[in-house]
Predict the 3D structure of the following.
Amino acid sequence: ELRDTLVPINSRWKVKEVLMAADAYSDNTGRRYSIEYAMIRDINDQAWRADLLGRLLKNRDAHVNLIPLNPTPGSKWTASRKKDEMEFVKILEDYGVTVTVRDTRGREIDGACGQLAAAEKV
């Protein structure tokens, strides 16, 4: 339900359908696929959401790339707390899901992904 709100295209392709296609790709190529997951504080970074994701991806050839949201001027959303991020990683790993956290280079100077565009005046 949250994904329906945050990702409008979700109304076209449901998570189940996307995973079925990704599994078929993996079966046909022998390669794993990546799930990009933008971590948003108090929106989708709770332990119970990690548990749902872990159960969904357990025994699949999937890799989760967690993306800490870069704070941008005027946005109501911000990055997850480090402790929440680390707990999310641990829960996924406990399910046997491989996971990495994307590096946020440039954040401290407002030069990370999304921050420069948000700072530009149109």
Observations:
- Residues 15-29 form the longest helix (15 residues).
- The radius of gyration is 16 Å.
